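Subject: complex prediction, re-run

Hi both,

The earlier run crashed halfway through, so I resubmitted it with identical inputs.
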Amino acid sequence: MKISTKGRYALRMMIELAQNHNVGFMTLKEIAQKQNISKKYLEQIIPVLNRNNFLIATRGFQGGYKLAKEPCEYTVGQILRLTEGNLAPVSCLECTPNTCPRANECPTLFLWEGLYKVVNEYLDSITLEDLVQRQKDHLCNDYII
Amino acid sequence: MKISTKGRYALRMMIELAQNHNVGFMTLKEIAQKQNISKKYLEQIIPVLNRNNFLIATRGFQGGYKLAKEPCEYTVGQILRLTEGNLAPVSCLECTPNTCPRANECPTLFLWEGLYKVVNEYLDSITLEDLVQRQKDHLCNDYII
DNA sequence: TAAAAACCTACTAAAATTATAAGAAATATA
DNA sequence: TATATTTCTTATAATTTTAGTAGGTTTTTA
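This time it finished cleanly. Structure:
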């Protein structure tokens, strides 16, 4: 019942890009350094976000990545569903309609459906902007204290 | 973000035992046959439930297992937390208080804490009795149709 | 005392996770 | 145009987790 590094790192990249939104393009090297994550590994994760038009990428010298939309337009759910594959707690929920021959008699199906729903709803209730804003507030608090 | 077979099988065992509550002891052989799960694998899972007093076990001839309490007294959350280890979506939530040195600046900590909370609350809102009752209702519907 | 049951520990195969490595393709600037 | 820099692509590998098997020990009742 864990979120893998793939999803977590993707989220951290998106937060890093959100923090630097409107500053221009960030290279993967920069992102990797700031977040202290292997650049090589991020190279494998970021194309998923890019292919799905979450990012704008330019290659070559002075290239890099930036968010395709405003931070408030990305939910955590969108990012994690993409990078984790999906957020289904059991694999029989992955295809809709459910193809399991025992779905009609399954005593736990509604349980997993309900869990799936609360997870998605919660993660879709939080945007990148929320995460960035919260960190700003927090850093501010540190100063006051 | 998946529940493993360990947790799912444990839940199915508990449902089987709940359905046969007050009928006496059930052997693991019976449970395994009815649920179509390897008995050898269940032998590895059931001691966790037993050690934590979820079950009453008797050894030897005519022995077996039965629920230690009424089905309504077990939540799905209790069963899954035990058999899955815990339900934390990220490992840094596993120890309280949080020992991560970066916890104060972590922009995603509150996100994971919130997810952890909705998952636990949802799974603790459903009892074994709910699951058994729902299946009864459903089987009844099948007759009507 | 024999059968049947829970209990215990070690082992193993397969899959997923978490990366590394090596290079190809594209592009801005000198 | 050459070069450095960057994204992009594919292959490989180590480690960990998952999902079981196997073989035997202990307990209990008939």
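The domain at 5-140 of chain B is CATH 1.10.10.10 (Arc Repressor Mutant, subunit A).

- K.
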